[in-house]
């Protein structure tokens, strides 16, 4: 059951991300053609007002199809209509007319030529595969030559639509963190802060029980009331479980294990919404800095922190075993991680599209599809490399266990 809930949680984050793209595109005058959570083949799909909504069978992401992502080029005609042209030479004349318009950059003059091409295609005798590819080409060209095509838009609109996906994930994380601070801030605390990547004491509040029991920065927390601490999330959970009763902590300090306490944790007042919002923003900044540091460590060859979707689902499932609140903290962290990963300046990630949109704005003209495709090939290779590194780490952890 936890595994299923964890997958639904990831689906929610993908939905939030794609909804950011979708609604922002509609708000600035672009008309998305599809909204999918998951990748094809489609398990469920429905069409409403010209937009196809669906759930894909491969739960590794999602997409919003925005019309005309690329400026039409002569090479597009060969890609889409090559098989049909080989079987029906009568398509050559309308295709050549379109090709000349594309070479001249006359997109307004190309649009009226599409009906002639479509009619010639319908009157020709070609195989089903060639006809299907050609019809898809007609639809792609119609979208790319439309007034709401993405490549036609001003730079700020393109950047806004693409940034809206990771931006919505970022906002979702901040709101979720703030809500958790409000709901969970009235519990019991010893009064210390930990490092962002391990159960190690970073700072001790001198007015709290942690200082009285002797905790100091650098202490690695091993157990709380005899329960082993395996991750950051274990620490607040075990302190809360004390319900105000005295707490004993065992730490590792300078290679030695030291028992500290017992001391009663302090009951705190619930955090106000403004303060919780500020704490959420601060926490988001701290986590963002740590994720950036982890990426730099990955470049230096330290790859143990990378995980695949398999490991993410498993970790989320384990968080559910510790309670709904712990799981929601993990969900917020995943949403933030998804936002930051998508902002990397690599195609086909959102950050790559943002970078290309800015370049196009500076140049004053669109970058050709072939350039997008070459750069995307590199980006896809790097993303797949990250996936297989993460999968290797997940398998290694299982083998180690």
Could you provide a short overview of the structure?
With 401 residues, the protein is of the alpha+beta class. The protein is 58% helix and 16% strand.
Description:
This protein has four domains: 2-69, no CATH class; 74-145, no CATH class; 187-267, Roll (Pdz3 Domain); 273-400, no CATH class. It is 58% helix and 16% strand. It has helices at 2-27, 74-87, 92-104, 107-110, 114-123, 128-145, 155-184, 209-213, 234-241, 273-299, 309-321, 324-342, 350-363, 369-400; strands spanning 34-48, 51-65, 188-189, 192-194, 201-204, 220-224, 227-228, 247-253, 256-263, 266-267. It is elongated. The model has no long low-confidence stretch (mean pLDDT 86).
Unreliable parts: none
Q: Largest sheet, if any?
A: 4 strands, antiparallel
Query: Quaternary status of these chains?
Result: single chain
The average pLDDT is: 86
Descriptors:
4-stranded antiparallel sheet, 401 residues, two-stranded antiparallel ribbon, alpha+beta, Pdz3 Domain
Strands, helices and their partners?
Blueprint: H1 2-27, E1 34-48, E2 51-65, H2 74-87, H3 92-104, H4 107-110, H5 114-123, H6 128-145, H7 155-184, E3 188-189, E4 192-194, E5 201-204, H8 209-213, E6 220-224, E7 227-228, H9 234-241, E8 247-253, E9 256-263, E10 266-267, H10 273-299, H11 309-321, H12 324-342, H13 350-363, H14 369-400
Antiparallel strand pairs: 1-2, 3-10, 4-5, 6-7, 6-8, 8-9
Helix pairs in contact: 1-7, 1-11, 1-12, 2-3, 2-6, 5-6, 7-10, 7-12, 7-13, 10-12, 11-12
């Amino acid at each position: 059951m936890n595994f299923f809930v964890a997958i639904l949680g990831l689906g929610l984050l993908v939905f939030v991300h794609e909804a950011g793209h979708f609604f922002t595109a509609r708000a600035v005058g672009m008309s998305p053609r599809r909204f999918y959570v998951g990748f094809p083949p489609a398990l469920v799909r429905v069409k409403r007002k010209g937009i196809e909504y669906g759930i894909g069978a491969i739960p590794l992401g999602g997409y919003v199809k925005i019309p005309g992502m690329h400026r039409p080029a002569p090479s597009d005609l060969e890609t889409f209509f090559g098989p049909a042209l080989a079987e029906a030479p009568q398509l050559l004349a309308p295709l050549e007319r379109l090709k000349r318009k594309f070479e001249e950059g006359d997109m307004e003059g190309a649009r009226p030529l599409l009906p002639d091409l479509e009619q010639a295609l319908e009157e020709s005798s070609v195989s089903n595969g060639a006809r299907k590819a050609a019809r898809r080409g007609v639809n792609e060209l119609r979208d790319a030559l439309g007034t709401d095509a993405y490549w036609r838009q001003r730079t700020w609109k393109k950047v806004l639509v693409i940034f809206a996906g990771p931006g919505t994930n970022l906002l979702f994380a901040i709101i979720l963190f703030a809500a958790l601070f409000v709901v969970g801030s009235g519990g019991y605390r010893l009064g210390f802060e930990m490092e962002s990547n391990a159960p190690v004491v970073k700072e001790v509040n001198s007015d709290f029980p942690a200082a009285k029991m002797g905790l100091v920065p650098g202490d690695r927390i091993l157990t709380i009331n005899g329960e082993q601490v395996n991750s950051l999330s274990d620490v607040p959970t075990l302190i809360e479980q004390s319900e105000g009763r005295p707490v004993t902590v065992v730490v590792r300090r300078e290679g030695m294990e030291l028992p500290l306490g017992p001391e009663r944790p302090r009951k705190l007042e619930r955090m106000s919404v403004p303060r919780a919002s500020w704490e959420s923003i601060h926490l988001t900044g701290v986590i963002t800095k740590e994720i950036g540091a982890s990426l730099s460590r990955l470049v230096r060859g330290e790859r143990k922190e990378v995980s695949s979707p398999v490991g993410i689902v498993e970790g989320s499932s384990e968080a559910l075993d510790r309670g709904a609140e712990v799981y929601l903290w993990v969900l917020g962290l995943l949403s933030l991680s998804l936002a930051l990963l998508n902002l990397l300046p690599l195609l086909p990630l959102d950050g790559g599209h943002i970078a290309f949109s800015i370049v196009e704005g500076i140049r004053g003209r669109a970058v050709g599809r072939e350039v997008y495709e070459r750069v995307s090939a590199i980006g896809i290779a790097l993303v797949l490399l990250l996936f297989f590194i993460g999968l290797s780490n997940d398998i290694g952890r299982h083998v180690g266990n």
